[in-house]
Amino acid sequence: MFVRDPCGIVCIIVTYMAVFYADYVVVRWIVLHTMQDRINNCVGERNQKYFIQFLVYVGALAIYAIILVITSWLYDCPQCNNDIAVKQNRILHCVILVLESALFGMFVVAILVDQFQAILGDETAVERVQGIQQRYHNKNTPRTFTLLSQVCGKSHPILWLLPCHNPPRYSFRKDAYLIDHEYIRLQYIRISDTPSDIQVTECLRNNNVNVSSVGSYLHLKSHKKEGIYTFQLPLKTRQYNIQNEVQNIRNNDRNGIFDISIQNDTISFNVSRDICVKEVLEHNCSTVSPPTFVNNKKNIIVEFSSPNIAKPFHVGHLRSTIIGNYVANINSFVKNNVKRINYLGDWGTQYGLIQLGINMADINEDEMRRNPIKALYTAYITANKLAETDSSILDRARKIFNDLENGTGVTYEQWIAFKQYTVEELTKVYGRIGITFDEYHWESMYNAKNIEKIITLMEKMQLLLRDEQNRKVVNLDNEKSVPIIKSDGSTLYIARDIAAAIDRFEKNNFDCMYYVVDNTQASHFSNLLEILKRLQMPWAERLKHVKFGRLHGMRTRKGNMVFLEDILDITRDIMKQKQIDSHTTKVRLDSSDKSSDILGISAMIVNDLKRKRQRDYTFDWNTAFDLKGDTGVKLQYTHCRLVSLERTCGAVLTLECEPSLLQEDIVDDLVVLIAKFEEVVLKSYEELEPCILTAYLFNLSNAINKAFSLLKVKDELPDLASQRLLLFHVARNVLAQGMKLLGLIPLEEM
């Protein structure tokens, strides 16, 4: 029989609303928020408000249920059925309800006390068990209201218990503390992918420190006995000074940092070893992210390689190609918008010499199509040799070029064909070393007709003057005159560079344009920059000359000059012979195999990039291809070894790290190196020094090979094998990413 009981109906509605709200809190703010497969009586700080609300509501309902039962005992219900069986059932239900309410009440009181103790003491249960805070620092506990408002939000205290979304005022990046049934551990929960030193950078950023300026100086060290990792940062360098912020950093919210200390003008941040190990491995298990410190999304132009169609692709162009590719790669990695430009030399008196040489050497169109670069070079050499004994050759060459620039020559179509053949041939050669360009530019794009407006502007600004040789020159402050236009009216190289820079800025609005050219061109780019400043181009300072030293000795073993394609063929043949001689070679060395080519190119690239960029050096064929030294072959060997391990070890790769299973010293050595990748990339990016990254990859390779001998994966217990495999997998990801930045193609077999 239905009893009209408004109070009971309200109770039912409120109860079910509380149940649904509890489900919402548990699913949305605890389970989904932590993304864990088990929750062992633990609540992250961001979830505390909702958990406390849930406890308070359950406690209130328990008290209300007990009051209802007591009331029913004190007062008779005249409308109720007085049947003995019904009364007995009602008594039984009341007893069960009181018992359940009492149990829920005690549970709520116990958990509420624990939660408020954690809030008001600013110390979690896990920290109390591990004694972390007592071990590392004495904490200055904020006021009670401050601690409660950090959990419940900025609103009025009366609103703290309302079931509405009022998020706490601190970051999403907070610790969720988990107690495992086998061991106690701290797990750092990431809402989004973050670097391993996120606690430190967040602490600095919260105290008004420009993280982008200090990022490359933040160094990580491990203290194996203490079970902590330390991030160290100088208080003052040429780029920044954080001495005024130190006191705030030490007093304010430390965001998971155990201890902050200062010694010898260095501030140190101590973080849990297990947190860092877990963070580093899980963060890099899928992809390797770029440094978060970089002010990215800049528009970058990198002009590199830039051979001349009249001359061989010599070693100077080879260094420009290798270094320029690295500059473009590392800028792309830090999320800049990069445009790669190959600025080909097709203009000037040399073109007249080529045209004469083609006729003198009787080079036909079929020869030009088969090997245009060598055919053009042969023509150029032929004309130059004749010019040594016949002074009229140079005059004829100048006449041919002058006619072409003025549009009066009859060789225009042939010149266009030469350019097309050259690009097709260069594209094949660049393809072998894995280099592409977004655009091919030509000097001829900025011939006399196309830059008339710029020349007129320079004349209006009275920058152009005639010298005693009837040339148009610009006089600089150091009493040096820079020729812009020759006496016959044809333009010089710097005139075309001025026009090219202006044109590229108008089309691309670049933040920086890098010219990757050797040290000998420093004076040319200094003059270019000064002239653009005098033309009142406000962006002139955005032009950067990436200098590099000369390379000596890059000739065949017979001492002959070689073209780039010849160099690549030589390196391939050397590596193929080494593979034939090695008993560990796994690939089939047939015509379809490209491993020899990739290994040879890797050796050549790394041999160049492992040195200081601006230093001259002599190329040595034996050193570059040494299998035991610090070479590109060694990096490829380590990567292939890691791939083989993953394929043959029989372990299942896990993406969840359990630091308790990775306690060996070599693990710390390897994890610290992996964590330093971002620091190294940032430093290499800021200084545009590939040797910084190359040296790091050698250290990483050495640590990986050492770990191979100490950390067995095959035939180990499944959990242990999976954790070690995760470590090696992450090491391979980082090694491969670093190799790609240098311009290498990581091999899987060799």
Description:
It is an enzyme of class 2 (transferase). By secondary structure, this protein is α/β, with parallel strands linked by helices. The chain folds into four domains: 39-159, no CATH class; 187-284, no CATH class; 299-552, Rossmann fold, CATH 3.40.50.620; 564-742, Isoleucyl-tRNA Synthetase, Domain 1. The protein contains 27 helices and 16 strands. A five-stranded parallel sheet has the order 9-8-7-13-14. The longest helix has 38 residues, at 84-121. The radius of gyration is 36 Å and the shape is elongated.
How is the secondary structure organized here?
Layout: H1 6-34, H2 48-74, H3 84-121, H4 125-130, H5 132-136, H6 144-152, E1 176-179, E2 184-187, H7 198-206, H8 211-214, E3 219-223, E4 228-234, H9 246-251, E5 259-263, E6 266-272, H10 273-283, E7 299-303, H11 315-333, E8 337-344, H12 349-361, H13 365-370, H14 372-387, H15 392-405, H16 412-432, E9 439-442, H17 452-460, E10 464-466, E11 472-475, E12 481-485, H18 493-508, E13 512-516, H19 522-534, E14 543-546, E15 551-552, H20 564-581, H21 595-609, E16 617-618, H22 621-624, H23 632-648, H24 665-675, H25 677-687, H26 690-710, H27 718-742
